[in-house]
Sequence to fold (162 residues):
Amino acid sequence: MTATVPTPAGITANHKGTQVASATITLTRDSLVRYAAASGDFNPIHYNDEFARSVGLESVIAHGMLTMGSVLAPVSDWAGDPGRILRAEARFTKPVPVPALGSVDVEVVAVIGAVDEAKQEARIDLTVTSGGARVLGKSRAVVRIGETNPADSSGASMGDAA
Fold:
């Protein structure tokens, strides 16, 4: 029998330990260039192998925030609305080297770590690895649970007349 993954609207304290999402994020040098252009982070450790080695890295590495943002995508997809993610945090424990040719995979597994029904929040714990090594530690997102969106508590829809 396969367990049903609860939606954020249906989470209760009984769901602690339930896996809600998993994904493989594939990063390439092209991913790094695109992220650098969008973020303005042109640190040469993200595009220049020679420079990366000169500062003690094995090669070019992925931007930390690219890695963190990418691993939140499966949580956002599961939540059904990125606005349900109230906050997120992580410790960068190991760089993610990105080869000049080919790609690197980052694996993420998201599990309900705690539920606060009174606050309508669930902590989603993320296990993030690449090449079998943990690359983010204490990774978690806090997601709004329950049927209603507190930001939409007026009950009016965008199409209602004022």
